[in-house]
Specification:
Length: about 325
């Protein structure tokens, strides 16, 4: 299949549409994580539909001192990867094409959620991101748009914008793609030296430690719920040697710290150890949040949550997250 390279909205709008159009928005420097998004888009569009990949490095979402100028630009390789993954077209507009009158005076505001975590570390980032996503949705006119769960806060804000402003598009989340050693795929990984990459593994290591602590707690609580509460049934358990295990399950399941506090503590231990490596990991934030608004959850929280981390290794800033489920919703 030949993948068309388009640079103007006029070229894109001139294409004959048959079936559904699914769009994958990127800033280029495509990798296997993007390929996974494109393959998922191909499945949504179907054989008669169309998959469009956008490649645009958006200046509005880079702050002062960030890596706009050195952000990798690899359009030829991007076109090849997109074609192999099933894209029909790559839309790679210039800055003038997306912002013909210069930086837009009217922009999309991310609101309170956009000021937390990534928004606090990168002021204005989410306003710029939502503004370009809104523009690209208008320019590409998709039935569905796919985004990776690695950028969990971005995904939540896009969903909120689409809902609040009545965009007629389906937003599809695709799970994070990782290297075999656990490092989440990112275009910025190419900045890391071998030593820096080893330190960077602490991001996923911290998340996995938190996940494992959470899984152990939930398993113990489930075991505790199965333990008999009557004296007669406890004696029956004792006869087969299970009373100690039952007691241990109760003790561990109710011990402090538990729940979210224990998850945070397990993750932070890994990050604290990485801060003493050479080169060190410099933590930006570790947060366990409600995905509805990205506020920290309390110890009595039940339902879906996101354990998120951001840190610098050398001059490279990386983010990662995993979903968790607490309590009754498990």
């Amino acid at each position: 299949m030949t993948t068309a390279l388009l640079s103007t909205a006029e070229e894109l709008h001139a294409r004959v549409r048959r079936g559904r159009r699914a769009v994958v928005m990127t800033m280029g420097a495509l990798h296997e994580g993007h390929a996974t998004l494109i393959r998922a888009a191909r499945g949504i569009a179907g054989p008669d539909g169309e998959v469009v990949v956008t490649v645009f490095v958006n200046p509005l979402q880079f702050g002062a001192g960030e890596d706009l100028d050195r952000y990798p630009r690899t359009l030829d390789a991007d076109l090849e990867l997109a074609g192999r993954a099933g894209a029909d077209a790559v839309f790679a507009p210039s800055v003038d094409e997306v912002y013909p009158g210069g930086e837009p005076q009217v922009r999309v505001s991310a609101g309170p959620m956009g000021e937390r975590l990534e928004g606090a570390s990168r002021p204005g980032h989410f306003d710029g991101m939502l503004t370009v996503v809104a523009k690209l949705l208008h320019l590409t006119r998709p039935d569905a748009a796919l985004f990776g769960q690695k950028d969990a806060q971005q995904l939540a804000l896009i969903r909120r914008m689409v809902r609040d402003l009545n965009f007629g598009v389906e937003i599809v989340a695709v799970p994070t793609v990782r290297e075999e050693d656990g490092l989440a795929l990112s275009s910025r990984n190419r900045y890391l030296s071998p030593d820096e990459r080893r330190t960077a593994l602490a991001l996923s290591g911290a998340l996995f430690a938190g996940r494992d602590r959470h899984a152990a707690q939930e398993a113990l609580r489930a075991r505790a719920r199965e333990v008999p509460s009557t004296h007669a049934r406890a004696e029956a358990l004792s006869a087969i040697g299970e009373s100690r295990a039952a007691a241990d399950a109760h003790a561990v399941a109710t011990a402090a710290p538990g729940g979210p506090a224990a998850v945070r503590a397990a993750a932070r231990q890994v990050l604290d150890e990485a801060a003493r490596l050479d080169p060190p990991l410099r933590l930006d934030y570790l947060a366990l949040v409600d995905p509805a608004d990205f506020t920290e959850i309390g110890d009595d929280f039940t339902g879906e949550a996101v354990l998120a981390v951001a840190a610098r290794v050398g001059s490279t800033r990386l983010i990662d997250n995993i979903p968790l489920t607490f309590g009754a919703a498990s």
